[in-house]
Amino acid sequence: MRANKSHFLLLNVLKYFKSTTPSWIIFNIDLFFSGISIFLAFFLRFNFVIPEYVTGRITGVLLLVIAIRALCFMLGKTHTRIVRHIGMRDLTQLALVVFIGSFLLWTANVFYNKFFDEGFFVPSSVIIIDFFITTYLMLVARLLIKFVFNIYRNNNKLRSNVIIIGSDELGIATKRALDLDTEKNYRVIAFLDEKKYKHRKNIDGIGIYPLSYIDDLLVNYSIDAVIIAKDYFSPSNKNVVVDKCLNYKVKVLTAPKIKSWIDGNFSTSQLKQINIEDLLSRDPIKLDTTRISEQLNGKNILITGAAGSIGSEIVRQVTHFAPANIILLDQAETPLYNIEMELNSKFLFSNYELIIGDITNVERMTQIFEQYPVDIIFHAAAYKHVPMMENNPVEAIHNNIIGTKIMADLAVKYQVKKFVMISTDKAVNPTNIMGASKRIAEMYTQALNRTSSTRFITTRFGNVLGSNGSAIPLFKKQIEEGGPVTVTHPEITRFFMTIPEACQLVLEAGTMGKGGEIFIFDMGKSIKMVDIVKNMIRLSGLEVDKDIKIKFVGLRPGEKLYEELLCKKENTLPTHNKKIMIAKVRDTDFETISQYIYQFEKLIRTQNRFEVVRLMKIIVPEYKSQNSVYETLDNVGQEANFAVN
Q: Mean per-residue pLDDT for 367-392?
């Protein structure tokens, strides 16, 4: 009972001093230690038997020491540090202040000996012993106070056990940030690292173990969170770790890369919960930056659709290669303004022009080419939303085909060196308006490549994480709202790629292209959409079907179950980059495709969507509609072909 009362009294005293301890108390405690220290130094120097001739000087020595120490403590402001937050830098400065005081004492000793010729006022050995004792007492006192405050703090908070993956600089900084967090009581159980030479060693008394130990740690300890604190953690290992953590309902957090720390410092507030994009990412791409720089450095580059998710990322990446000028072309006013603000504040890049314009407006596009010299075009402007284009085929034709033709023709007229078109995997064996329109645009630019000096290059890739129209943001919103999460079909699969990864490959392919190629990207393995949704629900700390329901709503108009990257009749050729291949496709006669597009231009005026789609199916025989009103056109056959005139 008495012990409990003493503990209660101690906690209340600590609680009082935690917020109200004035610096003068610390200052006087330090002076007290200084006085004790000089006495101990004399006793140790003379083996606890102080001679009489020395005894008479002790009072004077004590006053001198106190005066010098007080001056040094005031100038060094050692008493103003918050003791419970003291760190290595503070302790080093404290030792330095004590050393300066001892040096001043030794200097005073030398002057005394010179002017009074009575020997040293204080033996030099005493000054040295005093320095070590004073430093020791002051450092230990502060560390002890910090330790007691930590015990008090931790006894009043729930403890969170964490594992840190990574034992390099970022991992150590994460551990330090957890220690300094005054809001939560974190306890680091272990460091996990892939590097074998670090295993069985420790940091701050915390052991470093192989990644394979994670199962044992999750089973034997009540782990609240696993923090990934590595600048690079292989996607395969990351997925294994996250999967194990989700099975034990343990949160997975990521520490920001060192270069993104706020004001050069790292705090626990910067820890972020891992998201689905992190799990779908792959090994970083190795780019031939030398060749890309040779192509882009000092060039005038036009990017259509520059305010979109793909176009804006191309803008960001092109800025790294010192172009002479970037022309950002888009219809979207606000997103274009946003990318302008980003270029100014984040990239500190000013060699650009913002242009509001519609690629289907030939007069406006001509004026742009007249006003600005263009060396390279990255054509990302397009309508890409499958169900929406299924309901608006005339607009898909107008923008994706006619708009591309206008830009391609102007590129030839104004002698642009390269035209890189951004296409889609939905152009392969298309089942929807959007995919078929992009395939026809591919056919036109390929045919034009054979008749002009401009090199036309096409790049195809699948779904891009975080792009406009991506399903991932919709899934996130539905989970935040409590579900249900709507998935079209339990077996539907998609290829995925991050926006930066896709744009890096676009730059690489654009560099290596000689003209006429269709480059396809290694999209990895196709992933079931329902599996992505399940992981997203688990990452949110919820349970599938218990907290969040999954609802299957059926395929949307024009939607495929499985995406493809190549037609059956196509094959591929490798390139020096293993993530990029060249698709071999059938050639299209320029006159024929030009006449077909002329027919489109006439049909657009009629707004007859069935006739427009019928012509698309004639141009692209492999285009077979799925889950669409245009399936009836597939049954008719192609006997009633349009006259090409």
A: 93
Mean pLDDT of the chain: 80
Q: Spot the catalytic one: 384, 426, 560, 617.
A: 426
What is the SS3 assignment for 432? coil
Residues 6+ apart with CB under 8 A from 379: 304, 305, 404, 407, 408, 419, 420, 421, 422
Q: Is there a single domain that holds both residue 314 and residue 428?
A: yes
Q: How far is 564 from 623, CA to CA, in rounded Å?
A: 13
Kindly state the percentage of the chain with pLDDT values over 70. Answer: 81
> What is the Cα–Cα distance from 65 to 131, expressed in whole angstroms?
11
Question: 605 is in which domain, residue-wise?
Answer: 289-619
Please report whether residue 399 resides in a domain: yes
| pLDDT value of position 643 | 43
Retrieve residue 418's tokens. Answer: 């390269």
Antiparallel, parallel or unpaired: β 300-304 and 580-584: unpaired
Same-domain check for residues 576 and 503: yes
Contacts of 347 (CB under 8 A, 6+ apart): 316, 319
Q: Give pLDDT, residue 87.
A: 58
CB 449 within 8 A of CB 514: no
Whether 555 and 593 map to the same domain: the answer is: yes
Helix axes 590-606 and 609-619, enclosed angle (nearest 10): 170
Task: Indicate whether 630 belongs to any domain.
Answer: no
Q: Is pLDDT of 32 > 70?
A: yes
Q: Is residue 645 part of a domain?
A: no
Of 93 and 181, the structure prediction assigns the larger pLDDT to 93
Active site residue 426: yes
Residues 6+ apart with CB under 8 A from 128: 102
Considering 122, 153, 184, which residue would you say is the last residue of a domain?
A: 153
Domains: count for the chain? 3
**Residue holding tokens 């010299």?**
373
Say what the pTM is.
Answer: 0.69
pLDDT of residue 440 exceeding 80, the answer is yes
DSSP string, 120-145: -SS-HHHHHHHHHHHHHHHHHHHHHH
Please write the tens of the pLDDT for every residue from 394-428: 999 999 999 999 999 999 999 999 999 999 888 88
Give the integer Cα–Cα distance in Å for 542 and 599. 54
Q: CA separation (Å) from 170 to 183, 192, 508? A: 21, 13, 31
Half-sphere exposure of 294 (CA within 13 A, CB side): 6
Same domain, yes or no, for 355 and 370?
yes
Q: Quick one: 105 and 239 in the same domain? A: no
pLDDT at 121: 66
Residue 140 has pLDDT above 70, yes or no: yes
Reduce the DSSP state of residue 532 to 3 states and report it: helix
Q: Which tops the pLDDT comparison, 98 or 550?
A: 550
Residue 634, token pair as written in the block: 């597939």
Q: What is the mean pLDDT of residues 76-100?
A: 68
| Cα Rg of the chain, angstroms | 36
CA distance 181 to 269: 9
In the three-class reduction of DSSP (H, G, I as helix; E, B as strand; rest coil), residue 199 is classed as coil
pLDDT computed for residue 467 by the predictor: 64
The pLDDT > 90 percentage for the chain reads 26
| 3-class secondary-structure state, position 74 | helix
Per the CB < 8 A criterion, the answer to whether 294 and 319 are in contact is no
